[in-house]
Amino acid sequence: WADAERYCRLESAHLVVINSREEQKFIMQHTNPFDAWIGLTDSDGSWKWVDGTDYEQSYKNWAATQPDDWQGHEVGGGEDCAELRTNGRWNDNFCKQVQRWVCEMRRNIT
Q: What are the residue boundaries of the C-type lectin domain, all occurrences included (predicted)?
């Protein structure tokens, strides 16, 4: 997750912040059949979007029983990074898991 966010920042972007069901559908059209990192993490103990969007007031689409901060990874640690699953639901996963990601950038219209 951190490498994905770093890559996005190098491109003057950030991991995608999903603000609506419509945006999520659009992203899924371009990521299926793969899971993908999104710009949501609770590495400091509370969920935060990378662009500062208010998590409590924002769109959410967690899978049932998620986020669960599962501790059973053989590499140790919990699950502090959010991914968009192929079924459209969000899951918290081990942040060092290698997988695809989606970057988002502000479009400048002049």
A: 1-104
Q: Which CATH architecture has domain 2-104?
A: Roll (3.10)
Contacts of 70 (CB under 8 A, 6+ apart): 78, 79, 92
Residue 58: how many other CB atoms lie within 10 Å = 14
Is residue 8 within 8 Å of 37, Cβ to Cβ?
no
The answer to whether 51 and 17 are in contact (CB under 8 A) is: yes
Task: Identify the H or E element spanning 33.
Answer: none
User: Which among 16, 68, 61 is positioned nearest to 37, based on CA atoms?
Assistant: 16
Q: What is the pTM of this model?
A: 0.90
Ramachandran sector of residue 96 (left: φ over 0; alpha: ψ -120 to 50; beta: rest): alpha
The answer to whether the CB of 64 falls within 8 A of the CB of 72 is: no
